[in-house]
Here is the input.
Amino acid sequence: MSTHSVPAVPEPKRRPRPLPVFQKGARQALGNSQLRRNLYKATHTIRNKRAAVVGEVPDWQELREAGRAIKERTLRHLDTYLLQLEASVQRAGGHVHWARDAEEANAIITQIVADHDAHEVIKVKSLTTDEIRLNDALAAHGIEAIETDLAELIIQLAGERSSHILVPAIHKNRSEIRELFLHELIEHDLVPGPRALLGTEVDELSDEPRALTAVARAYLRSKFLSAKVAISGANFAVAESGTVCVVESEGNGRMCVTLPPVLVSVMGLEKVIPTWQDLEVFLQLLPRSSTGERMNPYTSLWTGVSQGDGPQEFHLVLLDNGRTQVLADTVGRQALNCIRCSACLNICPVYERTGGHAYASVYPGPIGAILTPQLLGIENASTLPYASSLCGACYEVCPVKINIPEVLIYLRGRVVQEKQESLPGRLSPENMAMKLMARVFADQMQYEEAQQLARLGQLPFVHRGAITSLPGPLGGWTALRDLAPVPLQSFRGWWRARQAAQQKSEPPAQKEQL
Amino acid sequence: MRVSLFITCFNDTLFPGVGIATVQLLERLGHTVEFPEAQTCCGQMHFNTGYQREALPLIRRFVQIFGDAEVVVAPSASCVGMVRDLYARAAEWFDDQQLAADVAALAPRVYELTEFLVYKLGLEDVGAYYPHRVTYHPTCHSLRVLHVGDAPVRLLRAVHGIDFVELPEALECCGFGGTFAIKNADTSMAMLSDKLRHVLDTRAEVCVAADSSCLMHIGGALHRQRAGVRTVHIAEILASTEERSAR
Here is the structure.
């Protein structure tokens, strides 16, 4: 446990509140043609790159299986590995803190920053700190958090939320980013010597990626050099050695974890892996699955503190925040295998069209649809397990073989069970219809009668040989699609007629009783 | 071979022609077709929508009805996927070991029509004749649950008179997804719009697939748009001959 005292003004207790329904956010996103184009282009580019570099690994399926097996074994003995990790980090001169929930984690981190009198911290992309809304908690104590991952910086400047695990600004194109840099950084004079650095007039800033990164670089470098405290996430933490690993593309993470004198790393409990050798598997799986690269440009690994080199104070915050609850569920727990590669987002036909904001969670896409309801409680995200056509593409690309469709179906079961516990839920049209149909399907006679009834019941809706409009929730179907009417003769009707005709034409003696 | 036909409630009620074609095709190839009349629904809609307790009796029922079959063949990849992939999950989640054993014994004998023809019977040319321009939409469950691979395409390419044309971005879901099309109608429509665009780009007059449900989805929109493209189940094309030609 932390020896630090908790700040006097604790965060207001944050109980999970129900997320907005997926359909609402989706509807809004679907209508935005610029967003649709940005998403299509980005997801298809990454998707194709991934397919190309995965295709060149002959033992990819074996690697996936190894990744899955390591994660499963680790989760089965999570307590052991976490305690081992704690001991290893402490042995290497680091401090380890255990945080039950977001509130505890934020209090711990705020205290560390306050202990160093820092009013500004730099951060490198950490989904986990987004999950606990660390930036808001720091701001409440007068501490400004500056995101240094380029995409995170873009999101922060725009005052938006991330819409993708790996490419948080996937919903923005470069001309939108140019506008943002111009108005939020350059016009506020936050970029040291833009003219000298860029070799161009400010208003001539082009939307070339090179020009845009030059602006971000100039801004961020001043921060890297002045910040006293850095906060990072963690991709992996090795129990046997106490080594923490961050994988990134830009090098800004490397700056964060090496330049400031104090480093705080926040990681979910499930990120621990047993041995150094296990990294071999994940460092192959992750870059190919996420950015579609054979190897990512920067892999930073550090073990506690080293005198005279890098940060002289290191804190590791181990966050539960609902994870042990997920672990207790034998079907749902495979969601904790996730290494946050985002391959499932990039391949998902739903994500490709709605983008990440519709999921209203830091974890969007297929993995978010199974992780968010489990972390927040199924009752708080009950539309997410349905935000999938169960096409199975996510499972196929998952580098640690999380059977996302299976977990989606399982969680739908929990949504229905929860609904059936209340009277309004039991009386809902969907529940009544499903119950009725289950009874009908369980009995051949009732089933055949229902076929008859459907032929009659549809009559008011059939116009010129097609059903073009249906009432209630079924109207979603006929908004875009006609429906062919139920034919007069079912297959079984045809079969019986044929059997009867055959029996008539064959004398009984020729039948199979011979 | 004695083939037990699992027609699926969907084809039985809405697309009887698919069942008739399946019977004609299998009999033409010299097999005996049986139709256990007690069969109703495999429980997929209930199971996948979250009504798993309600699906369980349907699952037990199916296993009982088809338990003794030599082989079970269905003209529907998603219903076969339900039996082969999710029945075991149902047994596991409800901790029913008897059901688990029964499913393990039955599931390997349950085939989707095209995989039965190509992988079990070793056929490609089934003697079909179909003089139309055709494109093929590989349904998600045929690809990613059953892994039928290119079996349907091999069968189609061997059809006499056919003008087969590849569908661009074929592997993408059409947006049906069972109750997804109702519950997430907007997103489903966005997915469907892209699928339609690709179908129309092929200039095919017929869009074919191994699942009537996905075809109903694609076909329903083509009909609404007066697009001049019809949807036909692969069984109907394979059953079509010069003597008895399907449209």
